[in-house]
Amino acid sequence: MDRDNSIAVSTRGLRKQFGGNGARVEALRGVNFQARLGELTFIVGPSGCGKTTLLSVITGLLDPTAGEVGLFGEAIHRLSASQQIEFRRKNLGFVFQQYNLLPALTAAENAAVPLIASGMSWTEAVAKAKELLDHLGLADRRDALPSKLSGGEQQRVAIARALVHEPRLVVCDEPTAALDHATGEKVMDLLAANAVHPDRAVIVVTHDSRVFQYADVIAEMDDGRIVKTQEKKRSEVYA
Amino acid sequence: MNFIALKMLTGDRAKYLGLIFAIAFCTFLLENQTSIFAGILRRTGSQILDVSDADIWVMDLKTEYFEQTKALKDTDVNRVRGVEGVQWAVRLFKGNPIARTLDGKFASCFALGLDDATLTGVPHKMLLGSWERLREPDAIVLDKAGYILLFPGEPLQIDRTLELNDHKAVIVGISDASAPFLSNPVIHTRYSQAVNFVGRERTQLSYVLVKAATGVRPQEVTRRIEAQTGLRARTTDEFRWDCIRYYLKNTGIPVNFGITIAIAVIVGTVVAGQTFYLFTLENLKQFGALKAIGVTNGRLTRMVLLQAITVGAVGFSFGTGLAALFFEITLREIATRGLVLMWQNVLITGGCIMLVIVIASLLSIRRVVVLEPAEVFRG
Fold it and tell me: What's the rounded Cα separation, in Å, for the pair B147 and B184?
């Protein structure tokens, strides 16, 4: 595995097959990928090219068929199931396309879920989540149920949930797909401003070309392979 | 995480209330039907239990239950008295005369003729009058339910007369006798009086009531009586259970109640199980998100179990409350008097509800456990 301290995620020769015999589908065909700390790395490409599968394997939600996956120098696919869960709970934050907020919990309670799952008391976790929501501009919406929030607000709550436990890797699956352009940009602004941190890597899977400007690195996938990697200067874009 | 599980459960009010209703309905039906079933079976031995003075009932060898009697010989009383361990033995007559009031209202009665000298077997719960007056000519004690049946809408009153198989009878007392199996009026009178009411036959003696001597176990005395007289002797409790077993074996009662109870369990399981499973399915995305975040299968299983147990406990409590209310109301009715919600039935129903909950939650737990957390990425 890569011992370069700036490398958060690295894969080598990563393969993933689904099904068996006649119905076998090869979703990843030897992917070599890296994501560095302090950077916003985009994985882009057409639907069905393997982006989400790559994200699932990187985060330990799926086991690779072959190849190596390293997260902060740890071969996650070699860990036991319980170690993987523990690793995810401590080190990973997730932002999903459909937000996946718990409908019965308020915005603050939803954002507090990773802390509660780690054993923090309910009161302490919700208080910490409220602070973060205030920071993300949702001070007046923190006691609202998801059904009372707009799509953009829900995604901001989801970002708060991904950041509240201060993970070292944040993965976002199509975070703007369910949002209109203006709201999508606001969400990406928020993500770029709050998620990117010298000790943290952020991976965004998207095929929404309108938000590519936020990327430091864009890895383009096609047919289960990384076909192109493009480094950008995000700071210049903002300037 | 437990609080999250409970919030998930109660967040969808309609489904939550639907689940509570299904369990409460199932509980009510089970407790109601099993208690009525047990109460009816208890009635088959009511008159046996009411005779609290005696320990042992002696009867013809072929007698299987209380209603079925073959008369013994009058000399059998003395034969029983001669058995070692018998403190005393007295006669008991059982017959079914027709009672008719002056208004022409009539009913088939359940008449018990008590030993003239001792009045053993007299009802101890008197509502009006006195059982000591049974020594008077034509005297009878009628139970309250029988009085209401024969004199509907009239206040309880003693010294009224009625006819028993065309013989004059005077009501000297009104008792609170336990309801018999068929809810007939229960009449207590002297043995000599009862055989007159019913009509003399060659043999009249229905039962011999026996008290075991101090220090001798009634079971031992029954064994000795059977060995020495060739008659059948049963302790009060054994005879009561004989009656229950007879009705269980020879009537449609267990089948009828069994079907209702089975339907309650099946419908409860299906409705509660399906609603709970649908509730879990609708939350599958959220469970997937929790899995991805790092919540273990064990913890998710505990969450689902907590939800199921909560639904079960709340539904069971409501159902038991409803059943208690039902019996509180029906206890005051003449026809359903004596039918109560027994703690044993509450316990058995609790077990059944737990089974329903386990079945309902197993499917949901399985669905959550096999859920691939990567599913959460699929829009």
Answer: 10
Could you read off the pLDDT of B248-285 as tens digits, one per residue?
Answer: 888 888 888 888 888 877 887 777 778 788 888 888 88
Model ipTM value: 0.79
Q: Which two tokens stand for residue A204?
A: 């965004």
CB contact under 8 A, A109 and B7: yes
Tokens of A138: 């949702």
Per-residue CA distances from B258 to B32, B37, B252, B261, B264 (Å):
12, 9, 10, 5, 10
B103 with B169: CB under 8 angstroms?
A: no
Rounded CA separation A230/B14 (Å): 52
Mark yes or no for CB contact A56/B286 under 8 Å.
Answer: no
CATH of domain A39-63+80-218+226-238: 3.40.50.300
Least Cα distance to B210 among B143, B125, B120, B134 occurs for: B120
Burial of B332 (0-12, 13-18, 19+ CB in 10 A): exposed
Asked if A119 has any chain B CB less than 8 Å from its own CB, the reply is no
CA of B3: which chain A residue's CA is closest?
A122
| Burial of B103 per CB tally in 10 Å (0-12, 13-18, 19+) | exposed
Q: A-chain residues within 8 Å CB-CB of B378?
A: 52
Q: What angle do CA B209, B212, B213 make, to 5 degrees?
A: 140
Residues 85-104 of A with CB under 8 A from B: 85-86, 88-90, 92, 94, 96-98, 100-104
The alpha carbon of residue A52 is apart from the nearest alpha carbon of chain B, in Å, by 7
Taking the whole predicted model, whether its pTM rises above 0.90 is answered as no
Q: Is A116 at the interface with chain B, CB within 8 A? A: yes
The CA distance from A162 to the nearest CA of chain B, in Å, is: 9
Closest Cα in chain A to B288: A100
Q: Which long-range contacts (CB under 8 A, 24 or more apart) does B306-310 make?
A: B306/B2, B306/B5, B306/B6, B307/B5, B307/B6, B307/B8, B307/B9, B307/B276, B307/B279, B307/B361, B308/B276, B308/B357, B308/B358, B308/B360, B308/B361, B308/B364, B309/B357, B310/B6, B310/B9
Q: Which of residues 147-166 of A touch B (CB under 8 A)?
A: 161
Query: What pLDDT sits at residue B3?
Result: 86
Instruction: Please answer yes or no on whether B1 and A117 come within 8 Å at the CB atom.
Output: yes
